């Protein structure tokens, strides 16, 4: 059934309904016919029984001697001849040898009509006598109306024949049954036309219903077939009807829009990932592009320098620079808040401002920090990102004459992390830079908060500069590396070269981290007084 | 009463005591997104010269937020006769250095750590 069309299924229902109607009507007509025939038979039997009683009454008179037998039989025939019932129906009486004793047509009386046939060839009298002699029963034949007038059309007649054995007589009476057929025919026409009307109405309805189902289904199937996989939400939604099909259309519509939004989300995510990936590449390149080359770090002027930078997965905003100038070495180290493209830009601006100021030969760290702040503050305000950075500037020079025995002098300005000095003799100094500056780019004027200090460096002294990526590097169990461990490894490894000290510190930090993820850039600058 | 709130944070303002309490994690994108908080702070200092800013429940504040607080402190510094108290928590890492810097912007500011 599932493999047949909906129209076929609907027409099947209609066909079955009509066939059932026809069968039921047939049964009704058949049952009506049986009833009518049964009524006729019953009537005929009653009438014949009555006539038999009449004959019997004459027989009684012959038996008890009231009448002689032939007189009794003559009277009986006369009496029966006169009998009429129903619509002028009469009786026929025959001798068992075939001679007609009583008949409505006087010409037949006294005649042996055993060979009388109806148009169908039925031997009428013979069959009546035969049926009667078997105990009585119905006989059907064709005979013209009236008194068997041969000029009239023969009609169907049903007769009941019964014997009167004592006299070797057979008595019958019959009735035309063409009216039964007429009645049945009328009934058939009535039911038939009713059936025809029902057939037409249900047929028309079935066609309408089939169309109302199949057409929208076909439209829906066509619309679904036409959906563009790249833009399912743009499908041509058929009109929403108020039936089950309407619910399907609403569901399909919902589904296509859900698909559409999933596709859009996927595209957006891909675009966003591509954008972020590109931004990350640019940021990483920005951070690396202006770092001092290893050639610039080669020891001169009595200072051994090593530097290390490792960007985190999401590049942070670490910055360091080492610039040589006529009077010594300028060192910058800083950390822009956050990460990404804007942090990278701020880093580049800081580097450029710092080199510009160095080139201008101001030779004034505090003033330079102030200028860098104001410059960056204005640019960051344009960017609207609210970022700022910690920045320490250091300047290494030959010591003034009053620093007895010192090989170099390191001036520090700007707020950043601690500056760790591991003295050659094992003493540790940690310099808090909080009061030497202020976050760069946060407020317009930080002149009031910037200060400087100068530290003498003796032979073998080591200076460690770092960003918080080092001290806040987390181990697998989330312990931070910390200032103490950094200072300790600096003291431990102070006798090596700047490169060796740097390697020792980085190795120690990595050991601490184990397999933990690097969340922030690691930056380390090691200076060693030769 | 809650004056402002967003994903992960809430700003409560008690007009009777002149207390603004910021709690949660604030990582709004850029100075512009901090504008409503900025306006609330500046309107409150106008209404309450003695204002308490309770940040002890503020677990994280991004750089734009720190910039917003710095601007507010500078504005407050320029107001005649106002007294600001900032309450921080020593157990929240970002607050130590940042709140001290605020204090440096406005030496009259009272800074307390729970």
What this model shows, in words?
The complex is a heterodimer of chains A (530) and B (114). By secondary structure, chain A is α+β, with helices and mostly antiparallel strands. Chain A is built from eleven helices and 15 strands. Chain A has three domains: 6-182, PAS domain (Beta-Lactamase, 2-Layer Sandwich); 228-289; 292-529, Phosphatase 2c, domain 1. Chain A is 47% helix and 19% strand. Chain A has a five-stranded antiparallel beta sheet with strand order 2-1-5-4-3, sandwiched between helices. Chain A has a five-stranded antiparallel beta sheet with strand order 6-15-14-11-12. In chain A, strands 7-8-9-10-13 form a five-stranded antiparallel beta sheet, with helices on one face. Chain B is α/β, with parallel strands linked by helices and 114 residues long. Chain B has two domains: 1-50, no CATH class; 84-114, no CATH class. In chain B, strands 1, 2, 3, 4, 5, 6 and 7 form a seven-stranded mixed beta sheet that branches. In chain B, strand 2 (9-14) and strand 3 (19-26) form a beta hairpin. The interface between A and B is medium-sized, with 14 and 19 residues.
Layout of secondary structure:
The complex is a heterodimer of chains A (530) and B (114).
Chain A: H1 6-63, H2 69-82, E1 91-95, E2 100-102, H3 124-133, E3 137-144, H4 145-148, E4 154-164, E5 169-176, H5 178-225, H6 244-289, E6 303-310, E7 318-325, E8 328-336, H7 341-359, H8 365-383, E9 389-397, E10 408-413, E11 419-422, E12 428-431, E13 452-457, E14 462-466, H9 468-471, H10 482-492, H11 498-513, E15 522-529
Antiparallel strand pairs in A: 1-2, 1-5, 3-4, 4-5, 6-15, 7-8, 8-9, 9-10, 10-13, 11-12, 11-14, 14-15
Chain B: E1 2-6, E2 9-14, E3 19-26, H1 30-33, H2 35-47, E4 50-54, E5 58-61, H3 63-78, E6 83-88, H4 95-105, E7 110-113
Parallel strand pairs in B: 3-4, 3-5, 4-6, 6-7
Antiparallel strand pairs in B: 1-2, 2-3
Helix pairs in contact in B: 2-3, 3-4
């Amino acid at each position: 059934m599932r493999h047949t069309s909906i129209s076929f299924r609907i027409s099947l229902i209609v066909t079955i309904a009509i066939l059932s109607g026809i069968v039921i009507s047939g049964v009704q007509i058949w049952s009506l016919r049986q009833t009518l025939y049964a009524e006729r038979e019953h009537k005929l039997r009653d009438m014949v029984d009555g006539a038999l009683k009449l004959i019997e009454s004459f027989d009684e008179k012959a038996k008890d001697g009231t009448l002689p037998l032939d007189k009794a039989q003559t009277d009986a025939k006369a009496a029966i001849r006169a009998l009429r019932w129903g619509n002028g129906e009469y009786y026929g009486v025959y001798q068992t040898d075939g001679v007609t004793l009583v008949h409505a047509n006087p010409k037949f009386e006294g005649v042996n009509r055993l060979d009388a046939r109806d148009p169908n060839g039925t031997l009428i009298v013979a069959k009546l006598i035969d049926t009667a002699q078997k105990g009585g029963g119905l006989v059907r034949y064709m005979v013209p109306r009236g008194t068997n007038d041969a000029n009239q059309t023969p009609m169907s007649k049903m007769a009941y024949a019964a014997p009167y054995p004592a006299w070797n007589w057979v008595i019958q009476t019959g009735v035309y049954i063409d009216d039964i057929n007429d009645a049945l025919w009328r009934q058939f026409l009535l039911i038939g036309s009713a059936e025809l009307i029902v057939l037409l109405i249900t047929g028309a309805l079935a066609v309408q219903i089939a169309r109302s189902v199949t057409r929208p289904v076909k439209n829906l199937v066509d619309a679904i077939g036409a959906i563009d996989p790249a833009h399912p939400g743009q499908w041509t939604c058929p009109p929403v009807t108020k039936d089950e099909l309407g619910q399907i259309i609403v569901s399909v519509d919902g589904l296509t829009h859900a698909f559409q939004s999933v596709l859009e989300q996927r595209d957006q995510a891909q675009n966003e990932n591509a954008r972020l990936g590109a931004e990350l590449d640019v940021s990483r390149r920005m951070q690396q592009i202006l770092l001092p080359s290893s050639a610039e770090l080669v020891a001169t002027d009595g200072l051994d320098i090593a530097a290390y930078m490792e960007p985190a997965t999401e590049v942070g905003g670490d910055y360091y620079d080492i610039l040589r100038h006529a009077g010594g070495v300028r060192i910058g180290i800083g950390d822009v808040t956050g990460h990404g493209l804007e942090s990278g830009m701020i880093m580049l601006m800081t580097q450029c401002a710092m080199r510009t100021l160095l080139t201008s030969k101001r030779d004034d760290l505090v003033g330079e920090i102030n200028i860098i702040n104001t410059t960056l503050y204005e640019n960051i305000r344009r960017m609207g990102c609210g970022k700022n950075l910690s920045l320490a500037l250091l300047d290494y020079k030959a010591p003034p004459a009053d620093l007895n025995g010192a090989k170099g002098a390191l001036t520090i300005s700007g707020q950043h992390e601690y500056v760790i000095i591991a003295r050659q003799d094992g003493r540790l100094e940690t310099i808090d830079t909080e009061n030497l500056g202020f976050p760069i780019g946060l407020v317009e004027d930080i002149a009031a908060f910037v200060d400087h200090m100068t530290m003498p460096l003796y032979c073998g002294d080591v200076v460690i500069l770092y960003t918080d990526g080092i001290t806040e590097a987390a181990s697998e169990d989330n312990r931070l590396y910390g200032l103490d461990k950094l200072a300790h490894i600096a003291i431990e490894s102070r006798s090596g070269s700047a490169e060796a000290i740097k390697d020792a510190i980085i190795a120690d930090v990595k050991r601490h981290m184990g397999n933990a993820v690097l969340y922030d850039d690691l930056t380390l600058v090691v200076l060693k007084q030769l | 009463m809650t004056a402002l709130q967003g994903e992960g944070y809430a700003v409560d303002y008690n007009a009777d005591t002149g207390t603004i309490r910021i709690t949660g994690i604030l990582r709004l994108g850029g100075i512009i997104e901090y504008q409503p908080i900025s306006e609330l702070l500046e309107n409150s200092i106008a209404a309450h010269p003695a204002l308490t800013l309770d940040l002890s429940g503020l677990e994280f504040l991004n750089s734009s937020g720190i910039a917003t607080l710095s601007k507010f402190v500078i504005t407050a510094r320029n107001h005649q006769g106002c007294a600001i108290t900032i309450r921080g928590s020593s157990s929240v890492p970002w607050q130590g250095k940042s709140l001290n810097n605020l204090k440096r912007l406005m030496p009259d500011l009272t800074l307390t750590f729970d």
